[in-house]
Amino acid sequence: MNHDFDVISAARNWRTDATPSANPHDVVSDVYASDVLTLEQLKTRLSKPVYKSLQATLERGETLDPSIADTVALAMKTWAMEKGATHYTHWFHPLTGATAEKHDSFVSPNGDGLAIASFSGKELIQAEPDASSFPSGGLRATFEARGYTAWDASSPAFIMRHANGATLCIPTAFASWTGEALDTKTPLLRSVEALNKAVSPALALFGASEGTRVGSSLGAEQEYFLIAEEYFYRRPDLVMTGRTLFGAQPPRGQELEDHYFGAIPDRVLSFMTDAETQMYALGIPVKTRHNEVAPGQFEIAPIYEDSNVAADHQQLIMQILRNTARKYGLVALLHEKPFAGVNGSGKHCNWSMATNAGENLLEPGDTPHENMQFLFFCSAVIKAVDDHQDLLRISVASASNDHRLGANEAPPAILSIFLGSELSEIFDRLESGQGGRGAEAGLLGLGTSVLPPLPRHAGDRNRTSPFAFTGNKFEFRAAGSSQSISFPITVLNLIVADAVTQLTADLKAKLDGGADLNSAVADLVKSTYAAHKRIVFNGDGYSDAWHQEAEHTRGLLNLRTSLDAIEHLTDDKNKALFEKFAVLSDRELAARQEIMYDIYFKTVNIEGETTEYMARTMILPAAVKYLGDLHAAGDGRAVKGVAGEVSSAADELYDAVQTLSAQNAAQGGEEVHEKAHHMRDHVLPAMLDVRKAADKLEKVVAEQHWPLPTYRQMLFVK
Fold it and tell me: CA nearest 348: which of 406, 412, 296, 280?
C-alpha cells in the first residue's frame, strides 16, 4: 500500500495539534532564560553574605561553602514552585552519553494528615541514585549499587515543562560510593580547572592582573534529519538503531545541491520556532537555523557559552528537538548516518579560551603578526593537536560515527589543522625569520555599483578540515551528532593545558635568562611551529593524495575505525596525561575504554540482529509473494525476465542472511573487546552483503509489495 498521500495529508493538517509560537518581541523580552534560575534571580532571593559566598564559587573558583545550602535550597524551591514545579530532580550525565533523572516530590507529610512543601540544603547538595544499572566499566559491580549525585553550582538550575506540569532540574555530577567519576561532567569540570591552572601563569607573564581566571568557551552546531512520523514507525531499523539498514538510492539525492540554505518548509519552520522558543526559555543561546546539505537535513547552532553550560545545553537541545518534532508529525533523527549515500550529521564544536573578564585568547585582532599573546596560545593549540592526535580521534569514536567519518564530511581518521592563508603565512614567516604579516584583508568588489564592496577576510574557509581555525576559535568538526560533547571538550581542554604548561615553562626560562617578552615569544613560537607544522594542512582533506601524504610523508596517525582508536586510550602517554592534570585516574580511564568497547559491541549487535529480523520477516516474504504473483501472471517474456531478476536477488539475500545469522550467533569471544572486533570485522561486512541484496530487490519488486518506506518517501515527503 502506498502511504504517500496519507503522509502528505497529515503534513497539511499538522497545525491542529501544534502549539502556537510566542510573539517574537515576547521571546526576546520575556521568554529568554525565564525558566532558568539565573544569578540575577538568586541575587534578589538571597541575603548579601550568602549571595557573595555563592558568587565567589561561581566567578572565582572558591570552594563551595556547604553552610549556605539550606538558604539556597529554600530560594530554589520557592522559585521553582512559583514556576509550577511540583517535583525536583538531580539531572546528570551518566556514561551512556545521554542524561538521567529521578524525580522527587516537594511534598512531605507532616504527621497530621496534611503535607508541606520542603526541600533542604542536604537534598540540594547530594542525592543517592541507584548506580548499579549505569555503565561503570568495572568501577562498580552490579551488587554495589550506591552512587551519589553532587550539585554543580556552576551550571544553573532550570525548569523542564511537560503537558501536565513542570520539574525543577538541578545539574549535578555523578560519582560512585568509592569517589570515582561515573559521568561525563566530573572530568569536564576537572579539565576546566586544569586549563585555568595551566593558562593563568602564562597570562601572568603577559601582564594579566592577579585573579584572572580562564575557562573554555564553546558553541556546538547540531545537525539532524526530519522525517514523517509514520515512516519512522514503519521502519524497524530506524526505531531500533536510529539509522536505515536498508534502502536503495533514489534517482535524486543531494546531487542538485538545492537543499543547502534553501527555503525552509513551512511545517519544519514552525517546528523550529516552537523548539527555539523552548530553548530560549532555558537560556540556550540558539542563533542560527537552516537547511543542511542532504535533503531532509537541518542545523541549529548556539553561540559561545562556558563549556560546562554548553555541554548541558547540548543535551537539552537534542531532547527538545526529539520531543517537539512529534507535535508536528515528524521525528528528529540524530544518528550520524541515518541514510546511506547522502551526507551524515555532525556536531561541530567551536572551541576557544576566555578569561573571566571576557577576553578571548584566540582573538587575533587586526594585527595578528604583532599579537604575541595570540600567537603563543595559537601555537600551543597546534602543538596540542599534533601531540595528541590519538586522543582527539578517540573522543569522537563510536560505531555510529564510523559511518560518517572518513567520507566527504570532514574526515578525522587523520587529524589536521586548517589555519588559512593569513595565519599560515604569518607562522611561515616567523619560522623563516622574516616576520611581518604577509596576506592582508581588503575589500571585495562585485562588479556593479548596485552592490557594496564587501570586507574580504585575509584567509578562506576549509570545510574538509576536521580542525579548522575560523577567525577567533577552532572548529572541531569531527564530533558525532548524537554524542555528548563533554568528552571532546574534556580532551581539548586537557591537551591544550598540557601544551600551554610546557610552553609557559620554556617561556619563563627564556625570560629568566634575560630575554625580553616579544623576542622570547617569537623564538618560542618559531620553534614550536617548526616542530609541529606537519599537522597544518590547508588543502583538500577529502583527496586520496592527502591521505597518502599525511600517513606516509608526514607520519600522522590514520586511525580508520573507532576500534583502531579506542585501543590507544590507555596508552602510557595518555594515562600519564590524565593523571598529571587529575582529570581521570588510571581506573577511571580504563573504565571509559571498557564502556566504549561495550557500547560499540552492543550497537552493532543490535544492528546485526535487526538486519537479520527485517530481511527474514519483511523483505524475503515480500519477494516471495511478488514471485507468486508473477508466476500466476503467465509465462510471457517480460514476466519471466522480472521473475528471474527477483528470484536471483532473493536467493542472494537468503544466502547473505544465513551468513549474517551465523556471525550474529558467534559473538566473537568472551571479552568485550573481542566481541567488538568481531562485530567490526565480521558482522558489519555480513550486514553490508544483506543490504546489497535487499537493495537489489527493492529496485525490482513492485512498489505495492515493498514493505518499507523508501528513501524517496522519507527524504522528500515534507
Answer: 412
How high is the mean pLDDT of the chain?
89
* Contact partners, residue 518, CB within 8 Å, separation at least 6: 372
Residue pair 396/405 in contact by the 8 Å Cβ criterion: yes
- Just give the CATH number of 23-182: 3.10.20.70
Domain ranges within the chain, ordered by starting residue? 23-182, 193-244+256-435+460-584, 598-716
| Residue 418 cell numbers, joined | 586548517
Do 598-716 and 193-244+256-435+460-584 have the same topology in CATH? no
- At 60, is the pLDDT very low, low, confident or very high (cuts 50, 70, 90)? confident
The DSSP bridge pattern shows strands 115-117 and 349-355 to be unpaired
Q: Which residue has the cell 569531527?
A: 478
pLDDT at 542 over 60: yes
| H-only helix segments in 449-553 | 486-512, 517-532, 544-548
497-540 pLDDT, tens digit each: 999 999 999 999 999 999 999 999 999 999 999 999 999 999 88
Strands 165-176 and 158-162, bridge-based pairing: antiparallel
- Tell me the pLDDT tens digit for each residue of 145-179: 678 899 999 999 999 999 899 999 999 999 988 88
On whether the CB atoms of residues 305 and 351 are closer than 8 A, the answer is: no
Roughly how many angstroms between the first and final C-alpha of the chain, as a whole number? 19
d(CA 6, CA 3): 5
CA 41 – CA 283 distance, rounded (Å): 13
Cα–Cα distances (Å) from 565 to 543, 560, 570, 602, in that order, read 22, 8, 10, 18
Q: What is the pLDDT at residue 233?
A: 96
**What is the DSSP secondary-structure string of 106-118?**
SEEE-SSS-EEE-
**Does 19 have pLDDT greater than 80?**
no
- CA 536 vs CA 327, 347, 392, 684: distances in Å: 46, 22, 15, 34
| Nearest CA-CA partner of 409 in 254, 269, 296 | 254
Residue type, 135: P
- 639 or 261, higher pLDDT: 639
Residue with cell 521502519: 235
692-707 average pLDDT score:
95
Question: Is this model's pTM higher than 0.85 or not?
Answer: yes
| pLDDT at residue 460 greater than cutoff 60 | no
Q: Which of 326, 319, 280 is nearest to 21 (CA)?
A: 280
313-336 b/e (C-beta count within 10 Å ≥ 16 → b): bbbbbbebbeebbeebbbbbbbbb
Cβ neighbours, 10 Å, residue 705: 17
Q: Please provide residue 279's backbone torsions phi and psi, each rounded to the nearest 5 degrees.
A: -65, -40
The CATH architecture assigned to 598-716 reads: Up-down Bundle (1.20)
CA-based nearest residue to 311, from 64, 99, 58, 157: 99
Please give the Cα distance from 603 to 477 (Å, whole number).
23
User: What topology is assigned to 193-244+256-435+460-584 in CATH?
Assistant: Creatine Kinase; Chain A, domain 2 (3.30.590)
Q: Which H or E run includes 378?
A: helix 372-387
Q: In angstroms, rounded to a whole number, what is the distance separating the alpha carbons of residues 390 and 517? A: 33
- Per residue in 571-626, pLDDT tens? 999 999 999 999 999 999 999 999 999 999 999 999 999 999 999 999 999 999 99
